[in-house]
Design goal:
The complex is a heterodimer of chains A (775) and B (173).
Chain A (H helix, E strand, L loop, with lengths): L2 H23 L30 H5 L15 E7 L5 E7 L1 H4 L4 E5 L32 E2 L5 E7 L2 H8 L3 E6 L6 H4 L3 E3 L1 E2 L2 E2 L1 E4 L2 H7 L2 E9 L11 E7 L2 E6 L4 H12 L6 E4 L14 H13 L3 E4 L2 H7 L6 E9 L5 E12 L13 H4 L4 E10 L13 H19 L3 H7 L17 H12 L11 E2 L2 E13 L7 E7 L4 E4 L9 H13 L6 E4 L16 H24 L13 E4 L2 E4 L2 E7 H7 L4 E7 L5 H4 L3 E13 L5 E11 L6 H20 L5 E2 L4 E2 L18 E5 L22 H13 L15
Helix pairs in contact in A: 11-19, 14-15, 15-16, 18-19
Chain B lengths: L1 E4 L2 E4 L8 H8 L18 E4 L2 E4 L12 E3 L12 H8 L9 H16 L19 H7 L10 H11 L1 H5 L5
Parallel strand pairs in B: 1-5
Antiparallel strand pairs in B: 1-2, 3-4, 3-5
Helix pairs in contact in B: 2-5
Classes of the chains: A alpha+beta (775), B alpha+beta (173).
């Protein structure tokens, strides 16, 4: 970095710091959410009642159309060939046999691919969404074992698959960094969301050394893959110079912008739709396959469908990286923490930037006199690692919450009591007030319902061959809201409203929950609301990630609704019972507007629009910048309880009971939110007991790239999971609600590891907890 | 080659390497059956052949010449939902909906196996034809169908609710 660039960066940092302080100290009323969303006060609407999914009937009939299910005239099928070395160059490449396969239309490699700009790396721009920034098919370089180097297009999938097996390739291999032990001898500090992953408050090492009670232990977690059941897929075609992509994505607008950068197009020349996504969990962003399909379609002149094989997903789409974490806690005899140290190293490539931020949860978890939190990056040559459900928190809470359990056990204190003893009054590292934090209440409700008081000393409860234990842990995930949310609302004279926003549905129940929210805002029934989404032509830059989509849609709809009501009051004029009222003084009620504290002053939408001689009113508005997250410390919380049984002879672990007690603000739709909580917890169960992408450190190749060998929880692994919640609204969040896609996975692996310890007396600090580690 | 698919006769001509799943999805436009792994590990492609559940991705289409195949599109008539489909909606037995067609077809085949007295590894006595379709039996018999969204509780409740009679009655072998 040049001196000038460094100075500019420092100056920018100084400006950011001043802004941050100003936002933290600003009056509440200046901040979005400073005046609570009026919907929080409403008690009799659809919000908070269990509503079945609007798209449920379509899905159970198999009629919901996914990315690979758009038929196009003249369409050809794509298949990829993947490199088998971790680093080097293609020396020789012969595609003649592949091209000779009957039905093959094109074999594309770096030799005949069109010129394309490198894909914009996630977070390098607000709309950048690529997993890495390596040039695609522009040179002979191989950067990871599994990198695609050829695409075959054919009239049938069978012919395309066969063709890829006939490509002759040789390599000039270079020494690669594939061993973590070697890579971590040369690390640098990680940065996340523009800030270093480093917190130093006081002298934590000295406080730790001086503390009368302490734990100081190392935990390790392996690579994980998202493995949504829908394979990554896209169906693409060119209409002249315009590109149309039916994608499976968590980011339609971002994908359109990013593809436009790659192909040198204007943003509006790329149209991306993704009405149904078969699970994403962080993986359904922009990887090479969409670009390759578009490039091959351009070269061949044919529409292209690309569906990655399951192995292809492991090879070409990154997962969660491995971590090695030290957690040390120093405490006084009464349990008060003097020091929290949470440091360690993760593996990352030089062409992506997600240093798995495992310290994020620790920044707000407990009060302590001193902190030292640090994530170091060890560069490796592998597929770019990426965001996977609760990036940072999922693995970070495993280490932190096991360490708290270890300390509680050593000190002879109940682990819940130790947590309560260190409950912070304000954000312990940022210093900002909590917007809403009811973790103690969540623990008490969960402990009572679960029967925590029946927990026995480690290794003392046995039923036949089975050792039984209970464990608990705290889960947490931040409330995020990203800039760029916008929505269009259209109200028609027959009292129907259409919401248009470029949001996503990959199973969260987005359209159902937000249709209910909009119905409540307007005072209309659910079936009067149409929710248009998942199309890059619609308003808003709305990532379905970071559990932020709910807040993003919520804030955008609040802004649009306010603009629409203002317009309606203007149209109502002086002849209306609403004459003279402002937008903040009225609410949607029974198919019209009424004065908030005087419901008798009312006029229906039909009447207002009829008198104004209007068929409809349409407004579009942007959400305000998300300053609330810098003014308050905003997070979701959970208390997870687990009863595990470990077979004393085989070491097999079975999970018998699980309870999740959540504090996530208002629950918009109890039916779909419960499913999200359970789904996250089940992924946490998988992380605890079975999930690992096994990486051959000699070759840098993932050796279990299939659902037969990468184990995820099946029906038999999952007991009935009990879910409760505080249902206390966050007064500073739209609808009082937080997104709940990621909180579920956090804390679960720790609760299971702690339950296994309580059952057996054995601490397993290396995930997954497989039976060999318990024998 | 000739198939009966969801009660209708279908003639098809295709590459002999084509799997039954690709025949359904790519050639016949029946995209309800899903591809999740293409190697029999996830169950998303489960269909019924003469009432028996199979992984369509592991089946070559040519093997099923002349057979009767039921996919998710054939579980109910065009207007409504079958009782099991309705129960999946009511119990929220899915999130993204991608594994759902396989779960539904698998459950239909599974219930038929129970009725026929086909034992499972959970049965206390494999020789005894009596099967009580309790929580463990049901989960064991559905374990070939993965759901990464983790809708397992809802799926099991939907099946148990729909087939309550089977849940507690014993069937002769």
């Amino acid at each position: 970095m040049s001196v000038i660039a460094e100075a500019a960066k420092k100056a920018q940092g100084a400006v950011q710091a001043v802004m941050k302080t100003a936002i933290a100290n600003a009056p509440d009323g200046w901040i979005p959410g400073g005046v609570p969303d009026p919907l929080i006060r409403a008690k009799h609407g659809l919000v908070g009642t269990p509503v079945s999914r609007i798209d449920g009937p379509l899905k159970v009939k198999g009629a919901a159309r996914f990315a690979a299910e758009f038929p196009l005239d003249g369409m050809v099928y794509a298949a990829l060939a993947h490199a088998t070395i971790p680093l080097g160059r293609i020396a020789t490449l012969d595609t003649s046999a592949a091209e000779a396969v009957p039905g093959v239309v094109l074999v594309m490699t770096y030799k005949n691919a069109p010129k394309m700009a490198p894909p914009p790396l996630f977070m390098s721009n607000p709309k950048a969404v690529s997993g890495d920034n390596l040039p695609i098919f522009q040179d002979a370089d191989i950067h990871w074992n599994g990198q695609p180097y050829a695409v075959a297009l054919a009239e049938t999938q069978e012919a395309a698959d066969h063709a890829t097996t006939l490509i002759e390739v040789t390599y000039d291999e270079l020494p690669a960094r594939t061993r973590f032990a070697e890579a971590k001898t040369n690390t640098y500090p990680g940065t996340f969301q523009g800030e270093p992953l480093l917190v130093e408050i006081g002298d934590a090492e000295a406080a730790l050394a001086a503390a009368p009670h302490k734990v100081d232990v190392t935990y390790t977690t392996p690579r994980h893959n998202h493995n949504p059941i829908e394979l990554h897929a896209a169906t693409v075609r060119w209409n002249g110079d315009d590109l149309i992509v039916h994608d499976a994505t968590q980011a339609v607008t971002h994908t359109a912008w990013s593809l436009a950068q790659i192909f040198g197009l204007k943003e509006e020349q790329v149209h991306v739709t993704s009405p149904y996504v078969g699970g994403g969990f962080g993986s359904k962003t922009l990887w090479q396959h969409q670009t390759l399909a578009a490039a091959a379609s351009k070269v061949s002149g044919r529409p292209v469908r690309i569906v990655l094989s399951r192995e292809g997903v492991f090879r070409g789409v990154g997962g969660r990286t491995l971590t090695e974490q030290r957690v040390a806690i120093g405490a006084q005899a009464d349990g008060a923490f003097d020091a929290i140290v949470h440091t360690g190293t993760i593996g990352m490539t030089s062409h992506n930037n997600l240093p798995e931020p495992f310290i994020v949860a620790t920044k707000t978890a407990y009060a302590a006199k001193t902190f030292h939190l640090d994530v170091e990056v060890a560069e490796m040559d592998m597929v770019a690692n990426t965001f996977m459900r609760a990036p940072g928190e999922a693995v970070g809470t495993f280490a932190l919450e096991c360490a708290v359990d270890e300390l509680a056990h050593d000190m002879g204190i109940d682990p819940i009591a130790l947590r309560e003893r260190n409950e912070p009054e304000q954000d312990p590292t940022a210093g900002t007030p909590f917007s809403s934090r009811n973790i103690v209440a969540a623990y008490r409700a969960g402990a009572e319902r679960f029967g925590w008081d029946k927990r026995q000393a480690p290794g003392t409860r046995r039923e036949g061959e089975w050792l039984i234990g209970m464990g608990c842990a705290t889960g947490t995930y931040p409330y995020y809201r990203m800039p760029g949310g916008a929505a269009r609302l259209t109200l028609t004279r027959d009292a129907r409203v259409t919401v248009a926003i470029a949001a996503h549905e990959m199973g969260m129940g987005t359209s159902t929950a937000h249709s209910a929210v909009v119905a409540d805002r307007f005072g209309l029934p659910l079936d009067a609301v149409t929710f248009d989404y998942a199309d890059s032509k619609l308003p808003g830059v709305v990532l379905a990630g970071g559990s932020q989509q709910t807040a993003s849609i919520g804030a955008a709809v609040i802004a649009a609704h306010r603009a629409l009501v203002t317009e309606l009051l203007k149209l109502a004029g002086n002849d209306s019972p609403l004459a003279g009222l402002k937008a903040d003084e009225v609410a949607g009620y029974d198919g019209g507007l009424c004065k908030l504290d005087e419901p008798g002053r009312y006029e229906s939408y039909a009447s207002i629009l009829g008198r104004a001689n209007r068929d409809e009113v349409t407004v579009e508005a942007e959400a305000p910048p998300p300053l609330e997250t810098q003014h308050w410390s905003m997070h979701s919380y959970s208390a997870i309880f687990v009863e595990a049984a470990v077979n004393a002879i085989t070491g097999e672990t079975r999970i018998r009971r699980v309870l999740g007690s959540f504090d996530c603000g208002t629950i918009l739709n109890p039916k779909t939110a419960s499913s999200q909580f359970r789904g996250g917890m089940i992924m946490g169960l998988g992380m605890a007991l079975m999930e690992e992408a096994q990486f051959d450190e000699r070759s840098g190749r993932i050796v279990n790239p299939s659902l037969a060998e990468y184990h995820v929880p099946v029906h038999m692994d999952v007991p009935a999971i009990d879910i409760i919640w505080t249902d206390i609204p966050d007064p500073h969040a739209p609808m009082g609600a937080h997104g709940v896609g990621e909180i579920g996975i956090t804390g679960v692996a720790a609760a299971i590891a702690n339950a296994v310890f309580n059952a057996t007396g054995k601490r397993v600090r290396d995930l997954p907890i497989t039976l060999d580690k318990l024998l | 080659m000739h198939f009966t698919i969801n009660g209708r006769g279908v003639d098809a001509d295709f590459d002999l390497r084509t799997s039954l799943l690709d025949l359904l999805r790519d050639h016949l436009g029946l995209t309800g059956s899903k591809k999740g792994c293409n190697q029999g590990a996830c169950g998303a492609c489960t269909v019924l052949v003469d009432g028996e559940r199979i992984n369509a991705c592991l089946a070559l289409a040519v093997q099923y010449d002349g057979r009767s195949i039921t996919t998710v599109e054939g579980l109910a008539d065009a207007t409504g939902l079958s009782p099991l489909q309705a129960a999946f909606v009511e119990h929220d037995g899915f999130q993204c909906g991608y594994c759902t067609p396989g779960q539904l077809c698998s459950a239909m085949g599974m219930i038929d196996e129970v009725r026929r007295g086909v034992p499972s590894v959970v049965a206390a006595d494999m020789a005894d034809g009596d099967i009580v379709l309790d929580h463990d039996e049901l989960r064991e018999r559905m374990s070939g169908n993965l759901c990464r969204c983790g809708a397992y509780n809802g799926i099991v409740n939907a099946i148990a609710d729909t087939f309550a009679a089977e849940t507690h009655s014993k069937e002769p072998a």
